[in-house]
Specification:
Non-ribosomal Peptide Synthetase Peptidyl Carrier Protein, Chain A, 4% strand, single chain, elongated, 2 domains, binds zinc ion
């Protein structure tokens, strides 16, 4: 049991779990926002432009007393998916842009090649006027 707890602690401490939890929580909250957007804004708008009564949620074909083919719910699900896919695409695009903008700073500046003594071809410090290897003068 001790070994199990230790393993579990390490699993938690790796940080991936926290990232995942944050993702799940944000994802859940985001789904609620999209559902609200579709249900409270887009569907009433469709109802408005179709003259009322023909809202997405009204597209139902009753087969018999118990079965209803609900095109409205299906179309709502598709709209939800398209909005989520679009927003996720925008987020991924923004993250890629941010990563591309940050990357050049992380890379170390390319070092200039150390100057070389013209007499012995040993490397000398930049700005040196006398070679420490052969004593020759460097211009
Ligand atoms: Zn030299």
């Amino acid at each position: 049991m001790n070994g199990f707890m230790k393993e579990f602690k390490e699993f938690i401490a790796k940080g991936n779990v926290m990232d995942m939890a944050v993702g799940v929580i944000i994802g859940g909250a985001f789904t609620a926002i999209v559902n609200s957007l579709v249900g409270n804004i887009i569907q009433p708008f469709i109802t408005l432009i179709t003259g009322g009564g023909v809202g997405v949620s009204g597209l139902q074909i009753p087969v018999n007393e118990e079965t209803v083919i609900d095109f409205g719910a299906f179309i709502s699900a598709i709209i939800n998916f398209l909005i989520i896919a679009w927003v996720v695409f925008l987020i991924v695009k923004a993250l890629n842009k941010m990563q591309a903008a940050v990357k050049p700073e992380e890379e170390p500046a390319p070092e200039e090649p150390a100057p070389v003594c013209p007499h012995c071809l040993e490397e000398v410090k930049p700005g040196a006027t006398r070679c420490p290897h052969c004593g020759g003068t460097i211009e």
